[in-house]
Automatic annotation (TrEMBL):
Organism: Mycolicibacterium peregrinum (Mycobacterium peregrinum)
PANTHER family xref list: F420H(2)-DEPENDENT REDUCTASE RV1155, HEME OXYGENASE HI_0854-RELATED
Keyword terms: Oxidoreductase
UniProt name for this protein: Pyridoxamine 5'-phosphate oxidase
Domain of life where this protein originates: Bacteria
Length: 130
């Protein structure tokens, strides 16, 4: 579950597939996910990058609060060219537990849908005991 802030300060939450991986530039651990180009979550994160991700497995849960960095066709990163973005989107998909039988199709869909990488640098992490 990813929660972002709307312009009026209210919270918008959506279910996402995310994983933990090394930031492509710094190597620091981040929570990473891929969002479709026109998603509200991206609009919210562009306006205010503070976000919270909650993951659950059975009775265990973890919350990660942090700051989002957006890298995609509409959010250029000086260190990430088109090939770098293609590989980053694949890496995030795999970090979230995904596998694919046809990477060419995956890449084409990512381009067509203007898919964007969201990298969340943790500022606070907490979970239930156990």
């Amino acid at each position: 579950m990813l929660s972002t802030l709307r312009r009026d300060g209210s919270i918008q939450s959506s279910v996402v597939n995310a994983g933990v991986m090394a930031h492509p530039s710094t190597g620091d651990p981040v929570v990473a996910l891929v969002a479709i180009g026109g998603a509200r979550k991206l609009q919210h994160l562009r306006a205010d990058p503070r976000t919270t991700v909650v993951a659950r497995a059975g009775w265990q849960w973890v919350t990660v609060e942090g700051t989002a960095e957006i890298i995609g066709p509409d959010d250029a990163d000086p260190g990430t060219d088109a090939e770098g973005l293609r590989l980053l989107l694949r890496a995030i998909f795999e970090a979230a537990g995904g596998t694919h039988d046809d990477w060419d199709t995956y890449d084409r869909v990512m381009r067509e849908e203007r898919r964007t990488a969201v990298l969340i640098a943790p500022t606070r992490i907490y979970s239930n005991p156990g």
